[in-house]
Each structure stands twice: as structure tokens, then as C-alpha cells.
Amino acid sequence: MPPLAQTQTGGLPVAPDLGLSLAQVRMPRSLTRFDARLIRLIGVSVLLGLAAACVAWLLMKLIGLITNLSFYGTWSTAFSSPAGAVPHLGAWVIGVPVIGGLIAGGMARWGSKAIRGHGIPEAMEQVLLNESRIPTRITLLKPLSSAVVIGTGGPFGAEGPIIATGGALGSLIGQLMKVTASERKVLLAAGAAAGMAAVFAAPVSAVALAVELLLFELRGRSLIPVALACVTATGARDLLMGTTPVFLMDPVSTPGGAALASYVLIGAAIGVLGVWVTRVVYAIEDGFERLPIHWMWWPALGAVVVGLVGWLAPPTLGVGYVNIEDILNGRLAMGALAWLCLMKFISWSICLGSGTSGGTLAPMFTIGGALGAMTGLLLGQALPWLGIDPRIAALVGMAALFASASRALFTTVVFAFETTGQPAGLLPLLGACTAAYLVSAMMMRNTIMTEKIARRGVRVPSEYKADYLERILVGDACQHEVTTLGADRTIGEVRAWIASAAPESQHQGYPILDSAGRVLGVLTRRTFFDAHWPEQARLGDLIQRPAVVVTPAHTLRQAADHMAMENVGRLLVVDPADPTRMLGMLTRGDVISAHSRRLREGARMRRQIDLRAWRRARAWRRRRG
User: Fold this and answer.
1) Three-class secondary structure of residue 117 per DSSP
2) Which stretch of 53-57, 363-367, 578-582 has the lowest confidence by average pLDDT?
3) Is the pLDDT of residue 171 over 70?
4) Which whole-number Å values give the CA distances from 382 to 95, 394, 481, 573, in the listed order?
5) CA angle at 44 for the pair 40 and 49, rounded to the nearest 5°
6) Which pLDDT score, from 0 to 100, does residue 5 have?
7) Which residues touch 617 (CB under 8 Å, ≥6 apart)?
8) Which residue has the higher pLDDT, 333 or 113?
9) Threshold 0.90, pTM exceeds
10) Which residues pair with 483 in a beta bridge?
11) Per-residue pLDDT tens over the stretch 230-263
């Protein structure tokens, strides 16, 4: 048997009669970063932003209409607080939220169970498990059920429902169009973020929310459509609802060093409370799960508490945006803050735990703002030299509580800044929310957004980092010395060679070369020992498919994906300028070796600059001098 060749060169990995053209080589497709499909996605996202703004406007009008009908008996869409109706309704105010709870429970029972809760966890679950496909009926049922609950006094914000509705609208459009699952995810995130931007005129934080809670990635093809959808939604919102910030706040001055440090500590303390709040909410939900009655009736039971609390503390009813403004502007005394904080928490946590449809951001801002304001007042009286402004303490308190519970750090910081327009509060916000985030990450595995779906076995990404395999080129990881077999060799010769246990015969696959040195394909050991082939069969006749190839300029991520798509364990590396020339081979083992290198780098700890050695060298030079 003639010797088997060790070679670095070869030919095109297709049969000669197929021609020597790169167009016929089975190679990873280079994903064009900006192409016609992206422009199309951007156009749809812009239209989606307009639609989300209109839906947000309609939802706010619907909430106003139901509120006025339920509490004042008037036909008006003006946004009003239920608190003003409590004096003349008296104890009858308890029944209004119960009616809303019964309607919401019925809509969930006979419409869709997915409308229960605050919406974001359900959207996350569809992104992670169902290729971003949200049932069509959610687009209508979610805003209707939320408007009924909030309009009848439910202690929720409108942000959760409109985020869920915008996401459902984006998913619906993505299901009507011929798009990939990744593109459908972008449309879902664009709709959800545009909805948030339209409610709060907060486009930057809406984009951050999409990245942190829905997209689970940060790349141009996703970011651009979402950002433009948010810009469009905010522009439309300004036309429909005006440009006034959602939470009007009197200007505050830049804090000094001692005050800034105090705000960070306040954020850390409220971060602990954020963990506790999350646990209490899910403990209440677990309690409802143990009730011996159908879940359809749970919202009505939770609404009984809402009504009782609303009778005792009327400001707890409804979205409570006015409460947030009062807290941020220092209009409430210590006793009023404590009462509002306690009652709002009781009402919101029990109502949310019952499975009622509504948002979490506004209630948590009320609770956290009250906690921050109380802390600021106490520290201001006890330690006036710190220079703490209770209004900034309220601002960082409301943001820190949500940052701790959701661990959406940048979303929370930017949102609090955009909705109040206080540049002097940006640095305290960043410090306090980061401290709250740190405390939450150390004390709690899941968040208020992910605990529900984590209990169903859904693993939610919590950290986004650059793909290590994207940083390594195939040319740096592949094997350049490759054992090849001639196409005119027979199966019998190869079997005898493998039986000899020569070092080169222990590989799992071999490129097959023709007489001119061109690669016809790749054969594996399984093929060599297939009893179907007689010993006289030549290797060139056994090739069923052209080889799957990459070039040295491809990344290991592209190569690994190509292996998965083609269901192969090795790729031939060819010269892109001369496709008849083989440069090496890349195997699964090479890809795993790259990962091993990453793990070693992350685990190995060593001092790069040894000061003791430097001092010894310096002393030695002095002695010689």
C-alpha cells in the first residue's frame, strides 16, 4: 500500500464535475449586518411605534373612562384619581374593586389565562421558549382586563399592561409576516419598548428595558429597530398627550460628597427591602395557590383587600402617579409617608399575588419613594451636616426598590431621570441603584420578573457578555497538518492501515484527495468499517456529499454554528482566494479547546507585577552600584 500523505494543500471540497467555484462550496453564510431585511424590519418597527403610542393613548383614556364611571358615575375619559370619590361612597368603595376583580377573573378564565399578572414575565417566557409567539387574543384581552382592574381602583400602574400589549402587537405582526424567530423577537421587543415609551415619554429607558428584559442581547440588528420604534412612539405621544414630564419635580441641587455617599447607603438599605418585597409577593401568591377554590375567584378576593385599604387610605386606589409627585416634591409629612407606604404595599402585594392583571413599576415607585423620603427626613434631622435633600432621597428610594426587585439597573436609572428631568439626581440614582442591584444579586437568585417563570423551569439569562468564540479566528484554532487519503485507495487497504494502529490512523475523519490533489470530500471511520462496502471499493466512490468548509477568516462561532447546521463534526479550512487549496481542518475538539482556554484564563489567578521581586532587583542594583 503506497504511503498516506501528510499535506497542507489540496483542492476544492466538491467533486471535480461540480466545478471549482466558491458559490458551490458549503460554507457559512456571512451575515450582512445592515441589509434590505433590516431596513424592512426598521420600517415595520416605526409603524409599530406609532401603533403602540395610539394603544397607550387609548388605554389611558379607557382607564379614565372606567374610573369615572365606577367611582363618579360620569361619562368622561379624563384621567382622575378614585381617592376623591371615597368620602361620598363610604364603605361602598369596597365593592368597586371586587367587581373589577370578578370581571378580570372571568376574562382570564374564558379568554386567556396569560393575561394574569404584570405581563413582563409572560413576554419573557414567550421570547425564551416559544419563538416570541404570543397568542393573538392577548393583544385585546390584556389592555381590557388591566383597564378594568385599574379603573375600578386596582393599585397598579399602566406600564405593565401596555408593555405586554405592545409586545403582543409586535409578536402578532411578526406572526403575520415571513420573518425569522430572531426578527420576531425584535418586533416583540420593539412593541413592548414603544408602549413603555408612549406611556412615560421615556424612550432611552424603554430601549434599556428591551435589552435587559426581552432581547437578552446588544447588537445593531436588534437595537436599531427598537430604538427607532421608541423614538416614534415618544414623538406620537408628545402629539397626543403633551410633552410634560410624567412626574413633575421641583429642581434639586447637586449633592455634596457626604450626601452622595448617604444616598448610596440608602440605596443599599432599600435594596434589602426590595429582596424582602419580592419574597413577600411570591409568598402571597403561594398562599393563593393553596386556596381550595378556582383561581378565577382569586382576583375578587384580592380586590376585597384593595377596597378595604382604599376605604382607610384612599390615595392607595388606582395608579397613584399623583402620590409619586407628592413624594418627590416633599409635600407629605412623615406620618403620611409611613401610612401611604404601608397601605400601598398591603394593597398592591395582595392584589398582585392574587393573579390580577396590572403593572409593578408605579406601585414600587410609590413604596420605594416613601421609604426614601422617610429615610431622608430622619437623616436630615439627626445628621443635618450630611446635607441630605429628602426629595433626592425619595428619588433614589423609588428607583432603588425597583432596581433591587427587577435587577434592571440601567432601565431604572435612566427611567427615573427621564420621568423627572432632574440632571442633579442622575449621579445619586446611579450610585443608589447600583448598590441596590449588588445587594439583590447577593441575596436573591431570581427577580420579581423572573421568579414566576423560573419556577416553571425556564432559565433566564442574567448576564450578557461578548461571545468568546467570536474573538477567535478559524485560522488560529484549526489543525494545519492534516492526514489525507487518496481517492484511488480501497476500503481493504484503509482497514488494514487502521488495524496497524499507526498514530495517523486514530483520527475520526479524513479528507479524500483525487489524483490532482483536489479534495473530493471527507470520510469517517464509520464509513470505512461499514459492512455494506466491499473491500475492493475505492474511497472516491464512497463520497456521498461534498465536504463542508470554512476559511481562516471565519470565527469559531460561525464555524460552530456551521457544524450544527450541517450536522458534521469537522470542517475543512480552505483558502478563500484559491478554493482548490486546503489549509487545514477544524474539529469539534478544536472548538472545545478554545472554550477550555477561556475557562483557564477565568480561573487562573496570578500577579502580573511582583513588587517583592521588583524591590529585590532594586536592592541588588544598589549593591552593585
Assistant:
1) coil
2) 578-582
3) yes
4) 44, 17, 75, 72
5) 145
6) 40
7) none
8) 333
9) no
10) 6
11) 999 999 988 888 777 888 888 899 999 999 999 9
CA-CA distance, 150 to 466, in Å (whole number)? 41
Report H helices in 321-458: 321-328, 334-353, 361-382, 390-406, 409-420, 426-443, 451-454
Report the C-alpha dihedral over residues 238, 240, 246, 248, rounded to 10 degrees. Answer: 80
- Please give the grid coordinates belonging to residue 386: 450630611
Residue 6 clears pLDDT 50, i.e. is over it:
no
Cell numbers representing residue 390 in the block: 429628602
Three-state secondary-structure class, residue 118: coil
Give the confidence band of 490 by pLDDT, cuts at 50, 70, 90: confident
Q: Can you tell me the distance from the alpha carbon of 335 to that of 315, in angstroms, rounded to the nearest whole number?
A: 14
Return the C-alpha torsion angle 313, 317, 320, 325, nearest 10: -20
- The answer, yes or no, to whether residue 226 has pLDDT greater than 60, is yes
Q: Which three cell numbers stand for residue 457?
A: 423551569
Contact 479, 585 (CB under 8 A): yes
Cα separation, 165 vs 174, in Å, equals: 14
Size (the chain), residues: 625
**In terms of C-beta density within 10 A (0-12 exposed, 13-18 middle, 19 or more buried), how is residue 228 classed?**
buried
CA-to-CA distance for 50 and 231, rounded, in angstroms?
A: 10
Q: Say which amino acid occupies 216.
A: F
Q: Give me 68's grid cell.
A: 369615572
Residue whose cell numbers read 409567539: 133
AA letter at 603: A
